[in-house]
């Protein structure tokens, strides 16, 4: 299993976000997280990434405890895709920065060039991120998550700021990585149709 949850529970103070969640996501699967705003989709993604600890239970990624250095190397994460870039750095340098952390030095430039081409970033790759539109920044954030050939990709509303041609670029990039396990929180109908299964999180579970 690429992702395994056992009795995973997360509370904020006394408010339950999700409780005793058991889940198995096989390699190459695409899981849609559905639910109303406030149901815990982003919280669950953060727990899967290891950036937020569970209150109880456990999560593993490819057999590694979530949050461990080994698990972090296997996960590509894109939360709030229009945000989170270094504004004064160019789109290309934002990508290089992550590539240097995740890849051998000789692979940095080829890997950066590949995701720039895949997501159609070339026309503004050398523009400061703070000068890019929300849709442009979203492309860079998604490209950044793909660097290093992760085993698991976690996406939070990735297509919210993307037009139809760019959404097609994203899904083409994912289709080229059939081994990649994707967990996607989205309200977009096309994203839902592209997923194999759905986990609906009720508010206050």
UniProtKB/TrEMBL annotation:
KW Membrane (keyword) present: no
Any one Pfam family match given in the protein's UniProt record, by short name: ABC_tran
Topology within the bilayer: Peripheral membrane protein
Domain ABC transporter: 3-205
TM helices/strands, residue ranges: none
Keywords for this protein: Antibiotic resistance, ATP-binding, Nucleotide-binding, Transport
InterPro entries registered for this protein in UniProt: AAA+_ATPase, ABC_transporter-like_ATP-bd, ABC_transporter-like_CS, ABC_transporter_ATP-binding, P-loop_NTPase
Similarity comment: Belongs to the ABC transporter superfamily.
Major location (coarse): membrane
Tagged with keyword GTP-binding: no
Protein name: ABC transporter domain-containing protein
Subcellular location(s) of the protein: Cell membrane
Organism, scientific name: Micromonospora qiuiae
